[in-house]
Amino acid sequence: MSITKQPDGRWRLDFYPEGKKNGKGKRIRITRATKGELIAYERYILDNVDNQPWLGDKEDRRKLSELIETWYNSHGVTIDDGNTRKSAMIYASDCMGSPLATEFTAKLFSSYREKRISGKLKRTERLDKVSPRTMNLELAYFRAMFNELKRLGEWKHENPVESIRPFKTEEAEMAFLNHDEINLLLEECANSSNKHLLTVVKICLSTGARWSEAESLRGSNVSKFRITYTNTKGNRNRTVPISEELYNLVVGKKTRGALFTSCYSAFRSALKRTKIVLPDGQMSHVLRHTFASHFMMNGGNILVLQRILGHTDIKMTMRYAHFAPDHLDEAVRLNPLAFNESKGD
Asked: Is 157 labeled as catalytic in the residue annotation?
């Protein structure tokens, strides 16, 4: 397609609305006084070429990977874990032979899932095989992607993974550190060559912050005896009080820009030196779990904890309810045996 200005000052449109097949195709050449007229005319012609219902739908030849890119550019880029989802789905697409989107079926994903669970397909050498929970996440990624593309008008077929049921999984164990382990960890962090590690760990233990939230703090996030977390997982800013001691430690580092450099690898090394054993996948959240568990064991309010942790759903926070000292104490007083004994008295 080209729009060119002619010697007489007018404009000419020259294009093939349906493309050229084998060097042939319907060609349109038209001249008008203004370029805008031709742009509008071209748009009108192309819209009508695509909108010919009597010819039936054109065959969708897009690959699954192309659909993933479309989803990411139109929606995934706006969500916090968009890159993570995109990478996981692109890897899955490659493992399934990079199929056309219309060839992606429940059976194909189920076969891929079985190979990942059994360890026949490894995304990283660090893990021999993935957990059912990981595959449930990938299933959720694809399901959400197709649902969103349908809403956007980018996908006109059924959701190919809608019928697949996720694996049943046990509730993940939430490891937390006791007081002796906390002191041991703080000692190893203090001995680390990373000058920011101890402060970041203390922030996590004092405020229940996610590691990424604490590590990415900027001077503007810290005010007197307060830390405000922004760009959080729940997309809600939250402010948590801190002690004067922690405040002085934080502002003593820097008051403007990024406060800390990356120190997660140093944390991993420090934790390894303590010989503390954690369940798989718990390392990055153990400090957050430790804060929440001790908060409830010390008599904290579950609704206050929800606000501190930034949970949008109270069900997430209720995982810590059993740590409260009086949790379900009524079971002792109101069970049928106790009730019969009290009546006998």
From this structure: no
